[in-house]
Amino acid sequence: MSSLFSKALVYLGLVDEDQMDAEAMDPVGAAPAEQPIQRGGVEPIPQGRRVEPPSSARVATRPQGHSEPVMASPMVRPVEVQSDILVVEEFGDARMLADRVRDRIPVVLDMRLADSDLVRRVVDFSSGLIYALDGSMRKVGDGLVVVLPPRVTLSRDEKRRLASLGAYELDDID
């Protein structure tokens, strides 16, 4: 078993180490090893290592269609908690965003001073976060994005407070 390829086959469990040693000892002109005799139409068990998956293993499939009716999500109610305003300066701020959203706190991302590459990365990260947590996010001004946890929305008072701080520029406050 001198070649790197042979060692890799053994390491991956594709062949048995004893089988590789036996093949290495055979002379070059030796006849191939005999195949086990088939009895009663049953295939012989191959030599070497073989790992069978557990019987409870499931195969992931894509849903082809909904067989059950989809239930509407529960009513979204305004939250009386104050939102956090996160001024994005580096990509590490995305971790603070994720922590706040997991704690069910709405976050306004202020990305007005960030460069375009950082804005793209943070928006991509928050999009994945919101998709995974089933939340929502929307643009509320130039360089301002509100990120909401699942089943959370902003109250009118909170929108007014954010507007007074310059972190909410939409006209839907009333």
Structure description:
Helix 3 runs parallel beside helix 4. The chain has a domain of 85 residues: SepF-like protein (Translation Initiation Factor IF3). The protein has 174 residues and is of the alpha/beta class. The longest helix has 18 residues. The model has no long low-confidence stretch (mean pLDDT 76).
Q: Residue-averaged pLDDT, rounded?
A: 76
* Biggest pleated sheet: 4 strands, mixed
What proportion strand? 5-15%
Count of separate DSSP helical elements: 5
Helix content: 25-40%
Q: Shape, please?
A: elongated
Poorly predicted regions are none
**H/E series:** HHEEHEHEEEH
Radius of gyration: 30 Å
Brief rundown of the structure:
This protein has 174 residues and is α/β, with parallel strands linked by helices. It is 32% helix and 14% strand.
Considering the chains and any ligands shown, give keywords for the structure:
5 helices, Translation Initiation Factor IF3, alpha/beta, four-stranded mixed sheet, 174 residues
Question: How would you summarize the topology of this molecule?
Answer:
Elements: H1 4-12, H2 17-25, E1 77-79, E2 84-87, H3 93-102, E3 107-110, H4 116-133, E4 136-141, E5 144-148, E6 152-154, H5 156-164
Parallel strand pairs: 1-6, 2-3
Antiparallel strand pairs: 3-5, 4-5
Helix pairs in contact: 3-4
